[in-house]
């Protein structure tokens, strides 16, 4: 951690009451007192973060200064998309600023003599408060902005139609000094001098909950009370509260609005709290399990700042006497590693962290998965949709379901998840690793050093009413640090003080780590963990510092055994020794080093390259071993190969061995005898794999030639070439289905499946925006790893494409393309499932289509889908009924139609369409003599 106080950021020695970092991280804004008016200044972030930029005279420090407020500015806040800046002050006004190409709106630096680098114009002045405006907060997706005032009210403004007022929240009997939004858009919270915190519903703007107990002893001793909501929506942390006569920051749990935990340790009233913008993740150092947690900064009138992680039982760091006056505002950068704080003494401080200290932010995809699990909605929720207005329910089926949140379908049914986990553990060779050619042999897993016994119990006391008082204390930043892993697994809701959240099983974590084929050869260098220290920036103290590093997810927690470039292990480091087959950084065949084996059931095949020396050259030994229940090995056969082996695979009946001289051998796994003669291709193979029934075997060569053979029939099933889709990349994963369809994943993350009917490669995953949006928006589970039952989802889960590059809350709130893009993606998924014969996934994607149509579809599209499933002879438009097949992949279209109709029940507006098509479905089933339950 580094701390720096840029003395050139000031308001002519006047107080700075607010600070906020732009979503891009390129600038930040401050608000406070000017010489004779309120002042808003937009600063360049580069000179704050870089000494070189600070010393470079050509790089401006101040970008724009606005002195339009008639009195002191108490708050400045950027919109989520960074387009607008809101400021509120003692002149009772809220001003909305927007950047323009040129013109008026800003003056030069402190006095008007200089020229503004950027031009920001006030596009709207919001008048509605009868007193000073103390705090502002933009809603998720920038649909609304809330302002609170000493007039005891909170005003909700329509951010798309300024200066329209949506609602005025009344109920507080004292000055309202802080306001914050629930990240999933259901609530807004406010804190007041009337010793209460109120939670308001955004559906009808009514007061949902009033919390008074933690604030009964409080006095009006702070200028502001900036509360904050955690990014997972589970915790609301207030500013000034009291516990046992001491100031605290109260933790309010969303579940039951319990108030039994608080942050204790600050000597004077807490003025502001600010959660990190992202949910963070890392591996717990002792359990090696994936942690997900939130980070919170707390500032107080005692001039101290504390940083807390919800995964720890004590603060990460406490900094005393950071300023000469109270800390008044805090702001995290969107990349998550910079924290700015401002004070009443007119100065600011910059704290820079590293990924090793704080962790890695959760991706938009993973955050959406978490929102789906916890709230039944993702980041693309529509805040403009109010509760349906007293709609008359005409169908009794809608009486119960219309009031509940629609729940998206899940690929793996809940009752099968435990069975699925058992299958993954018991049959990893058949299902979990069926498409891998890189195998690893775990030899040992031990700690290389005995860590000092950590302080497991936090410093706390209990009051008479049983409340806990947690005292902040400084701890070394490397005490609980560990490398993070890039995984889409989402844990259960985050608990304060929990050591680790429930995540992947150890078997799943090991398998995912071993599946990363793009791991660079310099993994040992990338995995070096240096000791984290807390120190001042060298511009304040002459210490050698390292610039903060960007958060880069590490592929795995394993390090290559015997690496000479490893640092001496620190007490908290662990080294997992593995015998690892070399990766293919260029897609070229690489000779297997050392002894290497792969197993199927009780038989394993071992390869020993260059183990036999002859006058003709070196030979490779290939051995078949049987392992009994007592784990006693017995050699059952042995053969030799005249060229080093570069890859091999093992199935239930056969083994395939591919050599450097382009030759391929298929052997009987029990006897080692060849099944058919040695074959040779134009280049050596880099990937090989058996189908799950072991009847088919596939190989891909360096040049992209793909062959699939039926081993028992000694015939070719498919002969094609991957070079037309490789375009500079190479195959990292190969799988062949029991039907003879090859699936490949390329090093660039794209994945394909070859369709013999179309004589073409079908695109499964790529950087295409529709596919990226579809996979992120519709994936409600952790990555599926069952190639036999869920081939499409398994292959698509190996894509390494990131989520939106901009703040999705802001960018997507009014994006008209989202609904057609989602439906287009789902319909393409359905067609792929038909081609690859995946009935389970076909049913899932039809259910997902119904879910999306119920939420965002049009009547025309809903009727089109239902008509197609109803059958050709009953379509309103006969042109759509050319295919009168009553089933798809053995699933009745009427069963799929029932699933779609079931999702329509979640929205009362579709009740007439639901009733119309349900009646037609009943008529058809009665006519056909079927007696099956229709809807559950």
Automatic annotation (TrEMBL):
<feature type="compositionally biased region" description="Polar residues">
    <location>
        <begin position="556"/>
        <end position="567"/>
    </location>
</feature>
<dbReference type="GO" id="GO:0000417">
    <property type="term" value="C:HIR complex"/>
</dbReference>
<keyword id="KW-0804">Transcription</keyword>
<dbReference type="GO" id="GO:0031491">
    <property type="term" value="F:nucleosome binding"/>
</dbReference>
<feature type="region of interest" description="Disordered">
    <location>
        <begin position="545"/>
        <end position="574"/>
    </location>
</feature>
<dbReference type="GO" id="GO:0006338">
    <property type="term" value="P:chromatin remodeling"/>
</dbReference>
<protein>
    <recommendedName>
        <fullName>Protein HIRA</fullName>
    </recommendedName>
</protein>
<dbReference type="Pfam" id="PF24105">
    <property type="entry name" value="Beta-prop_CAF1B_HIR1"/>
</dbReference>
<keyword id="KW-0677">Repeat</keyword>
<dbReference type="GO" id="GO:0000785">
    <property type="term" value="C:chromatin"/>
</dbReference>
<dbReference type="InterPro" id="IPR055410">
    <property type="entry name" value="Beta-prop_CAF1B_HIR1"/>
</dbReference>
<dbReference type="InterPro" id="IPR001680">
    <property type="entry name" value="WD40_rpt"/>
</dbReference>
<dbReference type="InterPro" id="IPR011494">
    <property type="entry name" value="HIRA-like_C"/>
</dbReference>
<dbReference type="GO" id="GO:0006351">
    <property type="term" value="P:DNA-templated transcription"/>
</dbReference>
<dbReference type="InterPro" id="IPR031120">
    <property type="entry name" value="HIR1-like"/>
</dbReference>
<keyword id="KW-0678">Repressor</keyword>
<dbReference type="Pfam" id="PF00400">
    <property type="entry name" value="WD40"/>
</dbReference>
<keyword id="KW-0539">Nucleus</keyword>
<dbReference type="GO" id="GO:0006355">
    <property type="term" value="P:regulation of DNA-templated transcription"/>
</dbReference>
<feature type="repeat" description="WD">
    <location>
        <begin position="66"/>
        <end position="98"/>
    </location>
</feature>
<dbReference type="Pfam" id="PF09453">
    <property type="entry name" value="HIRA_B"/>
</dbReference>
<feature type="domain" description="Protein HIRA-like C-terminal">
    <location>
        <begin position="672"/>
        <end position="869"/>
    </location>
</feature>
<keyword id="KW-0805">Transcription regulation</keyword>
<dbReference type="InterPro" id="IPR015943">
    <property type="entry name" value="WD40/YVTN_repeat-like_dom_sf"/>
</dbReference>
<dbReference type="InterPro" id="IPR036322">
    <property type="entry name" value="WD40_repeat_dom_sf"/>
</dbReference>
<feature type="domain" description="CAF1B/HIR1 beta-propeller">
    <location>
        <begin position="1"/>
        <end position="211"/>
    </location>
</feature>
<comment type="similarity">
    <text>Belongs to the WD repeat HIR1 family.</text>
</comment>
<feature type="repeat" description="WD">
    <location>
        <begin position="126"/>
        <end position="158"/>
    </location>
</feature>
<feature type="repeat" description="WD">
    <location>
        <begin position="169"/>
        <end position="210"/>
    </location>
</feature>
<keyword id="KW-0853">WD repeat</keyword>
<keyword id="KW-0156">Chromatin regulator</keyword>
<dbReference type="GO" id="GO:0005634">
    <property type="term" value="C:nucleus"/>
</dbReference>
<comment type="function">
    <text>Required for replication-independent chromatin assembly and for the periodic repression of histone gene transcription during the cell cycle.</text>
</comment>
<dbReference type="Pfam" id="PF07569">
    <property type="entry name" value="Hira"/>
</dbReference>
<dbReference type="InterPro" id="IPR019015">
    <property type="entry name" value="HIRA_B_motif"/>
</dbReference>
């Amino acid at each position: 951690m580094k701390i720096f106080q840029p003395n050139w950021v000031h308001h002519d020695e006047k107080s700075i009451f607010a600070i906020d970092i732009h979503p891009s991280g390129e600038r930040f804004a401050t608000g406070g007192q000017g010489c004779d008016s309120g002042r808003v200044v937009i600063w360049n972030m580069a000179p704050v973060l870089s000494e070189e930029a600070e010393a470079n005279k050509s790089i401006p420090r101040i970008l724009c200064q606005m002195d339009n407020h008639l009195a002191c500015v108490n708050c400045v806040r950027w919109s989520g998309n960074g387009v607008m800046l809101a400021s509120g002050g003692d002149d009772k006004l809220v001003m909305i600023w927007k950047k323009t190409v040129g013109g008026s709106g800003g003056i030069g630096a402190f006095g008007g003599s200089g020229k503004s680098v950027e031009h920001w114009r006030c596009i709207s002045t919001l008048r509605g408060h009868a007193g000073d405006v103390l705090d502002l907060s933009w809603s998720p997706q920038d649909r609304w902005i809330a302002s609170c005032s000493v007039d005891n009210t909170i005003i909700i403004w329509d951010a798309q139609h300024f200066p329209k007022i949506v609602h005025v929240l009344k109920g507080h009997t004292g000055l309202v000094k802080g306001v914050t939004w629930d990240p999933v858009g259901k609530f807004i919270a406010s804190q007041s001098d009337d010793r209460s915190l109120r939670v308001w519903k955004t559906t009808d703007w009514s007061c949902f909950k009033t919390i008074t107990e933690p604030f009964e002893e409080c006095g009006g001793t702070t200028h502001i009370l900036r509360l904050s909501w955690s990014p997972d929506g589970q915790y609301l942390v207030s500013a000034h509260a009291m516990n046992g006569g001491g100031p605290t920051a109260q933790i309010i749990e969303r579940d039951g609005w319990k108030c039994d935990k608080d942050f204790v340790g600050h000597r004077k009233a807490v003025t502001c709290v600010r959660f990190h913008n992202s949910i963070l993740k890392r591996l717990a150092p002792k359990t090696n399990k994936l942690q997900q947690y939130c980070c919170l900064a707390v500032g107080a009138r005692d001039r101290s700042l504390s940083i807390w992680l919800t995964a720890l039982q004590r603060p990460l760091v406490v900094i005393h006497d950071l300023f000469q006056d109270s800390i008044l505002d805090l702001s995290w950068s969107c990349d998550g590693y910079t924290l700015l704080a401002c004070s009443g003494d007119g100065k600011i401080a910059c704290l820079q962290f590293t990924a090793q200290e704080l962790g890695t932010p959760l991706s938009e995809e993973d955050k959406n998965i978490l929102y789906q699990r916890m709230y039944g909605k993702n980041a693309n929720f529509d805040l403009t949709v109010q509760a349906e207005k007293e709609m008359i329910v005409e169908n009794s089926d809608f009486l119960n379901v219309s009031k509940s949140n629609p729940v998206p379908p899940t690929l793996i049914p809940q009752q099968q998840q435990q069975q699925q986990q058992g299958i993954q553990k018991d049959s990893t060779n058949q299902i979990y690793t069926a498409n891998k050619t890189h195998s690893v042999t775990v030899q040992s897993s031990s700690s290389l050093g005995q860590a000092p016994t950590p302080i497991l119990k936090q410093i706390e006391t209990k009051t008479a009413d049983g409340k806990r008082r947690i005292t902040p204390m400084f701890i070394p930043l490397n005490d609980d640090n560990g490398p993070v892993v890039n995984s889409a697994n989402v844990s259960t809701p985050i608990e304060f003080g929990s050591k680790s959240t429930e995540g992947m099983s150890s078997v799943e974590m090991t398998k995912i780590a071993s599946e990363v084929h793009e791991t660079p050869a310099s993994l040992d260098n990338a995995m070096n963990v240096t000791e984290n220290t807390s120190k001042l920036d060298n511009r304040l103290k002459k210490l050698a510092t390292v610039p903060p590093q960007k958060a880069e997810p590490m592929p795995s927690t394993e390090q290559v055994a015997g690496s000479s470039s490893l640092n001496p292990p620190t007490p908290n480091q662990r080294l997992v020794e593995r015998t690892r087959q070399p990766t293919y950084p260029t897609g070229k065949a690489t000779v297997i080093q050392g002894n290497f084996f792969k197993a199927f059931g009780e038989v394993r095949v071992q390869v020993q390259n260059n183990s036999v020396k002859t006058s003709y050259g070196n030979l490779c030994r290939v051995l078949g071993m049987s392992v009994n229940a007592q784990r006693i090995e017995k050699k059952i056969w042995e053969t030799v190969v005249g060229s080093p082996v570069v890859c091999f695979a093992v199935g239930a009946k056969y083994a395939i061995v591919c050599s450097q001289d382009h030759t391929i051998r298929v052997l009987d796994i029990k006897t080692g005898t060849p099944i058919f003669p040695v074959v040779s291709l134009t280049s050596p193979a880099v990937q090989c794999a058996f189908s799950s029934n072991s009847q088919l075997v596939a190989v891909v060569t360096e040049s992209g030639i793909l062959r699939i053979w039926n081993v028992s029939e000694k015939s070719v099933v498919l002969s094609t070439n991957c070079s037309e889709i490789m375009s500079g990349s190479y195959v990292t994963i190969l799988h062949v289905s029991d039907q003879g369809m090859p699936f490949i994943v390329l090093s660039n993350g794209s994945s394909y499946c070859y369709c013999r009917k179309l004589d073409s490669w079908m695109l499964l995953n790529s950087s295409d925006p529709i596919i990226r949006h579809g996979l992120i928006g519709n994936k409600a589970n952790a990555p599926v790893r069952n190639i036999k039952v869920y081939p499409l989802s398994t292959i698509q889960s190996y894509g390494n494409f990131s989520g939106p590059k901009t703040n999705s809350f802001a960018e997507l709130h009014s994006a008209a393309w989202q609904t057609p893009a989602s439906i287009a993606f789902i319909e393409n998924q359905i067609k792929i499932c038909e081609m690859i014969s995946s009935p389970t996934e076909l049913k899932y994607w039809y259910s997902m289509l119904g879910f999306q149509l119920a939420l965002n579809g049009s009547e025309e599209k809903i009727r089109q889908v239902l008509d197609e499933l109803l059958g050709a002879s009953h379509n309103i438009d006969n042109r759509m009924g050319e295919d009168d097949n009553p089933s798809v992949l053995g699933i009745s279209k009427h069963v799929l139609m029932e699933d779609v109709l079931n999702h329509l029940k979640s929205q009362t507006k579709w009740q007439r369409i639901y009733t119309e098509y349900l009646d037609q479905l009943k008529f058809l089933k009665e006519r056909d003599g079927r007696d099956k339950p229709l809807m559950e």
